[in-house]
Design a protein that fits this description.
The structure is a homodimer.
Chain A lengths: L1 E2 L7 E4 L2 E4 L7 E7 L4 E5 L4 E8 L2 E5 L2 E5 L4 E4 L5 E5 L4 E8 L3 H23 L1
Antiparallel strand pairs in A: 2-3, 3-4, 4-11, 5-10, 6-9, 6-11, 7-8, 7-10
Chain lengths: ~130, ~130
């Protein structure tokens, strides 16, 4: 499928960090938009995570190593490995990818889509 | 891990199309550089594939639908679905992602890395 990213409802996972997460069977993409200075604090999950910076600067820590990545730079975070990310040079956009699919984000995306549809229906009934 | 893409040996999969494929446990990234007009002809595989355009223009066909994608535009190609791609506006760079890992590309990457190491050793022995 071709992803029309504007049609995927955003989820705010940390202050100033919005993700849109289209997904398939094995893969979930995550289009991450972060305001300057916004932080995804240390966390870990059993899902392997890869990614590439699309614009801005991403200060990324994987385990005990920190680097500041520019557009086109990539990473692979092994399962269960603590990591942290911060937008370090203006608004920063990243494409992350998870495998397996993160069921928590899938559920939140479906819920946000339903709310959006219900809102549109209520609007029509007026 | 942080990917130093220059340290990953390229594989030429079609004329004018070079990929570099760092990988983990569930995910393989594929940094694809295509010369203007280069084509990845119709093919399919059981691995699910996602991707995002980093620069240039990608004319992508998934099944029977064709669209020309710009930087930041994304796609998810279900397993076993025929697809084709062409660089349609100058040199085009894409980040693809596969899950599960493509063992054929992993083997070719390891082989290319070994050849590169052997070459470096032969150089040192001179």
């Amino acid at each position: 499928m071709f992803v029309d990213i504007e049609s995927v409802p955003p989820i705010e996972i940390f202050p100033g960090v919005r993700i849109r997460t289209p997904y398939g069977k094995n893969l979930m993409l995550s289009y991450v938009e972060s305001e300057d200075g916004a932080v995804v604090s240390f966390h870990h999950h059993p899902h392997e995570q890869g990614g590439v910076v699309l614009s801005g600067r991403l200060e990324l820590t994987i385990g005990s190593e920190t680097r500041t990545l520019r557009p086109g730079e990539m990473y692979i975070i092994p399962p269960d490995t603590p990591h942290r990310a911060a937008a370090a040079g203006g608004r920063t956009v990243v494409m992350d990818v998870f495998s397996p699919v993160r069921e928590d984000y899938a559920a939140r995306t479906e819920q946000a889509a339903k709310l959006s549809r219900d809102g549109a229906s209520a609007e029509q009934r007026r």
